[in-house]
Amino acid sequence: MRKRYLITFGTVLLILIVDQVIKFWIKMNFAYDDPSIPILGDWLHLNFVENQGMAFGTQLGGGMWGKLTLSLFRIVAIAAIIIYIFKQIKKPEVKTEFFIVAGLVLAGAAGNLFDSMFYDFIFRDYFDPCISYNQVNGSGVYAECSYFGYTEMVEVRHRGFLFGNVVDMFQFNVIWPSWVPYLGGGQVFPAIWNVADFAISCGMILVLLRQKVYFK
């Protein structure tokens, strides 16, 4: 049983450390308008963005309540995953592989939640209300921004605990062949993602592929 705890939460710790180290490095060394940088040939780029949503920039509504609901949903989901893992650890018939997969999903959810919980405090001096990813219609919070010689008031997102943006940085640069109907010339996967998103995706794909093994 101890081995299962080590495998599960060792996986979680490893993914969290890698995820947060990369995000900290991106936040402190890149600006919003920096051009993307090829890192694996020309098919994988480094492209810094921030978003208020879930994996791959998916959002749950908008404004304060959408973001707060999403953050609370993450907390509930993480708690449910942890409870489920503890129950499975006690079952001798559950394969060790399952705990690695569960660790991937848990680490991915926790990695993005950490951004929302703490980044507005850690990177307080990096906040720029005039950058588009900090602007939200209907927030009721305003900041003064100057554009090309004129000034206007813009609505910006709420800040603080559970309201921080999630940092994304990786983007596939793969284009559909022109002969593919409807998709030709467009990006195969345009979303920008992070290590936490990747961990969740890998975990869920393995659950789907191996569900008969994990859930007899």
Structure report:
The chain has 216 residues and is an alpha+beta fold. The chain has one domain (2-122, 169-176, 192-214). The chain has helices spanning 2-29, 63-89, 96-122, 195-209, 211-214, and strands at 37-40, 44-51, 142-147, 150-155, 166-172, 192-193. The strands form 2 sheets. Strands 1-2-5-6 form a 4-stranded antiparallel sheet. Strands 3-4 form a two-stranded antiparallel sheet. Strand 1 (37-40) and strand 2 form a beta hairpin. Helix 1 (2-29) packs parallel to helix 3 and helix 2 packs antiparallel against helix 3 (96-122). The protein is globular.
Secondary-structure element string: HEEHHEEEEHH
For this structure, the quaternary state is: single chain
Binned strand content = 15-25%
Mean pLDDT: 89
Query: Helical region count?
Result: 5
Which class of secondary structure composition applies to the elements?
A: alpha+beta
Overall number of domains? 1
| Main sheet summary | 4 strands, antiparallel
Adjacency order of strands in the biggest sheet: 1-2-5-6
Shape: globular
